[in-house]
From TrEMBL:
<dbReference type="Pfam" id="PF14707">
    <property type="entry name" value="Sulfatase_C"/>
</dbReference>
<dbReference type="GO" id="GO:0004065">
    <property type="term" value="F:arylsulfatase activity"/>
</dbReference>
<keyword id="KW-1133">Transmembrane helix</keyword>
<keyword id="KW-0479">Metal-binding</keyword>
<keyword id="KW-0812">Transmembrane</keyword>
<keyword id="KW-0472">Membrane</keyword>
<feature type="transmembrane region" description="Helical">
    <location>
        <begin position="239"/>
        <end position="258"/>
    </location>
</feature>
<dbReference type="GO" id="GO:0005783">
    <property type="term" value="C:endoplasmic reticulum"/>
</dbReference>
<keyword id="KW-0106">Calcium</keyword>
<dbReference type="InterPro" id="IPR017850">
    <property type="entry name" value="Alkaline_phosphatase_core_sf"/>
</dbReference>
<dbReference type="Pfam" id="PF00884">
    <property type="entry name" value="Sulfatase"/>
</dbReference>
<protein>
    <submittedName>
        <fullName>Arylsulfatase D</fullName>
    </submittedName>
</protein>
<feature type="domain" description="Sulfatase N-terminal">
    <location>
        <begin position="56"/>
        <end position="439"/>
    </location>
</feature>
<feature type="transmembrane region" description="Helical">
    <location>
        <begin position="215"/>
        <end position="232"/>
    </location>
</feature>
<dbReference type="InterPro" id="IPR024607">
    <property type="entry name" value="Sulfatase_CS"/>
</dbReference>
<dbReference type="InterPro" id="IPR050738">
    <property type="entry name" value="Sulfatase"/>
</dbReference>
<dbReference type="GO" id="GO:0046872">
    <property type="term" value="F:metal ion binding"/>
</dbReference>
Length: 614
């Protein structure tokens, strides 16, 4: 059975007391009480709040790599998503909900903090734009503040079930400086990393595959070369020197092969709080286990205010092969996975409703960024999402297809059913929205999001986002301007990725697009589009076609200057915020002393005991 610890008993802020207790079965091992009110609460009550004054619960559900065109209520009429469609019918649907980055790590950092990823050092300067190894030292800095941490301080019980992908350790195995528990989540169960192809035999590798190929070829060439030099007498090399060189080459091979050969063991793991419970994880049963954990978290906390972030492993490749859904959709394995996602969303909604929590629970459904257009193979076909009419996709900078995502809010009795909002909004808006609803009025650092409740409730018609800034790594890629009093939403692109092969709609040669050097084309003057008239970004504006053309460039230039003034200028190795850059090679690459492990490193391996699951 699951063991309830102090991590899941949040301080009850309204009573201004601290109740430190540890529950290991029964009875309580100790209770330390600092105030009489707290003692009375423990003796005479169950810790629940009065229903008349109880603060709302939050259930946030995020799919990985879901395209906005994959969902029925956003225009897909072939993939069946009745449960997601029901959420939209019973709540508010946003049609211009924007991720702060087109890739997992920076987008999720911005979502959690309400700030652009560059402010927390989570923007990349080079080819690697996401964390690649659990044994790396990069991650969301301990100094950052997440919405979970703010709600925890308000007495909420907070849980994360599913994907994290924002780092684990800093300096030694077990310091857990980047771990969800250190960032405000009382309870964590899931993937501290993400689901990669490497996690399933036969699916290939997502981790620096070209580098692996180069190192493998170099090793073979070096071995054969040494043998030929000695055999053919091309150089006068003593047998002793040859043996030394041979062992050096073996050592070099081990050094590069160890991180890559055992990626399933290093990266594909499950943790419960700070304990590794499965290494490598069994992927086939992962969706069921994550869903069960999310449901049980809600059940355990039905009598206290809670925040649950259900961060799903779907639909990042490798795709799941659940027999209950295989062959059921019209879009092959990818469509089967979407329909499984919809079923899981339905189960989460059913859980909230069956416990009588619907009228006091804000439910939110979204994706971390757009679908991955280049992800396909000859066996399965297309494995990435469909981004509807929008240009581009995952990892394509500021193109709309990579950053415009589905977003639905449901709160019966508070939000009018069937409402649709077309104004620009952001995943970063969740942070200030949750703060407001939790009653958090304490000062905060600079935020880039805004409280969405006035817009969701129809109290205002205009978004507070007059400008949005679209980053590709640390590079400002594009700016969105929604002029006051206008329906237009202008997008100004300073550079765009170079698609390959020429004429394609993505970077098929490199699998993902890059943000720098020969991989991009800079535009002077910038490319300008009006998303209201041209949502597909197919017709660039010019002074001849747009009377406000000069004003658009002037206003966005001023906005960029104001935005950059909010960033404290620093010199490398610190980024523009003064925070150490978390996405450097030094922080990303695998370090054996940081590798999470069940057992004695390097002999890591364990299977989750079903009796310990909730």
């Amino acid at each position: 059975m699951h063991t309830l610890t102090v991590h899941e008993v949040s301080p009850l802020k309204p009573f201004h007391c601290l109740c430190c207790c540890s529950i290991r079965g029964s009875p309580w091992s100790f209770v330390r009480v600092h105030h009489v009110a707290c003692l009375l609460l423990l003796v005479g009550g169950d810790g629940s709040e009065d229903a008349s004054v109880r603060r709302p619960n939050f259930v946030l559900m995020m799919v990985d790599d879901l395209g906005i065109g994959d969902v029925g209520c956003y225009g897909n009429n072939t993939i069946r998503t009745p449960n997601i469609d029901r959420l939209a019918a019973e709540g508010v649907k946003l049609t211009q909900h924007i991720a702060a980055a087109p890739l997992c790590t920076p987008s999720r950092a911005a979502f959690m903090t309400g700030r652009y990823a560059i402010r927390s050092g989570m923007g990349s300067t080079g080819r690697v734009q996401v964390l690649l190894f659990l044994g790396g030292s990069g991650g969301l800095p301990p100094s950052e503040t997440t919405f979970a941490k703010r709600l925890q301080q308000q007495g909420y019980t907070t849980g994360l079930v599913g994907k994290w992908h924002l780092g684990v350790n800093c300096e030694r195995r077990g310091d857990h400086c980047h771990h969800p528990n250190q960032h405000g989540f009382s309870y964590f169960y899931g993937l501290p990393f993400t689901l990669f192809n490497d996690c399933v035999p036969g699916e290939g590798s997502d981790i620096l595959a070209d580098l692996q190929k180069t190192l493998r070829s170099f090793t073979i060439f070096l071995g054969i070369g040494l043998a030929l030099v000695r055999r053919c007498g091309l150089l006068d090399i003593s047998l002793r020197l040859l043996v030394v060189l041979f062992f050096i080459s073996i050592l070099a091979t081990v050094l590069w092969l160890t991180p890559f050969k055992f990626i399933p063991t290093w990266n594909c793991i499950l943790m419960r709080n700070q304990e590794v419970v499965e290494q490598p994880m069994v992927v086939e049963t992962l969706p069921r286990r994550l869903l069960t954990e999310a449901q049980q978290f809600i059940k355990r906390n039905v009598d206290r205010p809670f925040l649950l972030f259900f961060s799903m492993a779907h639909i990042h490749t490798p795709l799941f092969r659940n027999p209950a859904f295989s062959g059921k959709s019209l879009h092959g394995l990818y469509g089967d996975n979407i329909e499984e996602v919809d079923w899981m969303i339905g189960k989460m909604t059913e859980m909230v409703d069956s416990l009588g929590l619907a009228n006091n629970t804000l439910m939110y459904f979204t994706s971390d960024h757009g679908g991955h257009l280049e992800d396909s193979n000859s066996r399965v076909g297309q494995q990435g999402g469909w981004n509807s009419i929008y240009r581009g996709g995952k990892a394509m900078g500021g193109w709309e297809g990579g950053i415009r995502v589905p977003a639905i809010f449901r709160w019966p009795g508070r939000l009018a059913p069937g409402r649709v909002v077309h104004e620009p909004t952001s995943l970063m808006d969740l942070y200030p929205t949750l703060k407001y609803l939790a009653g958090d009025t304490q000062p905060d650092r600079h935020l880039d999001g805004f409280d969405l409740m006035p817009l969701l409730e129809g109290k205002i018609e205009r978004s507070e986002h007059e400008f949005m800034f679209h980053y590709c790594g640390i590079y400002l890629n594009a700016v969105r301007w929604h002029p006051p009093g206008s329906d237009s939403v202008f997008k100004v692109h300073f550079f765009t990725p170079n698609f390959s092969p020429p004429g394609a709609g993505g970077c098929y040669h490199t699998h993902v697009c890059q943000c720098f050097g020969k991989h991009v084309t800079h535009h002077d003057p910038p490319l300008v589009f009006d998303l209201f008239q041209d949502p597909s970004e197919s017709r660039p504006l010019s002074p001849e076609t747009e009377p406000r053309y000069s004003e658009i460039l002037a206003q966005t230039a001023k906005a960029v200057e104001r935005h950059r003034n909010t960033l404290a200028i620093r010199q490398p190795p610190h980024d523009a915020t003064g925070v150490s850059n978390q996405m450097t090679w030094e922080k990303i690459l695998w370090k054996p002393w940081l590798q999470p492990c069940c057992g004695t490193f390097p002999f890591c391996g364990c299977k989750e005991d079903p009796s310990h699951s909730v």
